[in-house]
Every structure is written in structure tokens, then in C-alpha cells.
């Protein structure tokens, strides 16, 4: 996967953290490929392959993967990767 590809957000139906994550990324103008692992077995297999676990939401962008997160946890992880933050178009002061 190249860094120019769309970030992937793996979600589950009825997951409040997934809904929160989708809302956050939409509000920030981040274009995502949303993959519902509840509906597609291949998506679940892909999520497990990149994250090593079965919990959602899981965010994948190149080598940057954050599994089983709240938006606050995602932002905390993103702080360690300023180049990813920049490529996603997320400013430091946006929450």
C-alpha cells in the first residue's frame, strides 16, 4: 500500500467508537475507505492481518496502524507521527 492511497477505517456495525471515528474523520475532511468487518469476512481477515486483533475501529494508512481506539487515543498515537498527521491534513490544534 502506498502512502498516497486512501486511509482505511475498519468498523463494526453498531460500534459507538466506530461511529465516533467516522464522524471525526468526516469533520476533518479526511477521505477514508470504510470497511465494515461485520458484513465482509475478507475485511475482517485484512484487519486482523494488519493489526493482530479483532477489535474496531482500526485505522490503517501505509505502515501507520492504530487498532481498537477512541478518537482521543488515535490523536495521542498520531502525535508520534507528524508526517502522517501532515499527509492526512490534520493540524496539531484540531481535536
Question: Would you spell out the secondary-structure blueprint of this structure?
Answer:
Layout lengths: L7 E4 L4 H13 L4 E4 L4 H11 L6 E4 L2 E4 L3 H8 L3 H7 L7
Parallel strand pairs: 1-2
Antiparallel strand pairs: 1-3, 3-4
How would you describe the overall organization of this protein?
The chain is α+β, with helices and mostly antiparallel strands. The chain is 41% helix and 17% strand. It contains four helices and four strands. The protein has a four-stranded mixed beta sheet, with helices on both faces. Strand 3 and strand 4 form a beta hairpin. The N and C termini lie far apart (27 Å). The model has no long low-confidence stretch (mean pLDDT 92).
Question: What can be said about this structure in brief?
Answer:
This protein is α+β, with helices and mostly antiparallel strands and 95 residues long. The protein has helices at residues 16-28, 41-51, 71-78, 82-88, and strands at residues 8-11, 33-36, 58-61, 64-67. A 4-stranded mixed beta sheet has the order 2-1-3-4, sandwiched between helices.
Amino acid at each position: 500500500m502506498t502512502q498516497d492511497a486512501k486511509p482505511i477505517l475498519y468498523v463494526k456495525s453498531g460500534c459507538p467508537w466506530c461511529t465516533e471515528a467516522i464522524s471525526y474523520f468526516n469533520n476533518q475532511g479526511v477521505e477514508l475507505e470504510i470497511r465494515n468487518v461485520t458484513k465482509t469476512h475478507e475485511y475482517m481477515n485484512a484487519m486482523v492481518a494488519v493489526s493482530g486483533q479483532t477489535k474496531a475501529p482500526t485505522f490503517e494508512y501505509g505502515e501507520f496502524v492504530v487498532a481498537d481506539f477512541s478518537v482521543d487515543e488515535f490523536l495521542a498515537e498520531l502525535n508520534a507521527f507528524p508526517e502522517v498527521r501532515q499527509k492526512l491534513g490534520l493540524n496539531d490544534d484540531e481535536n
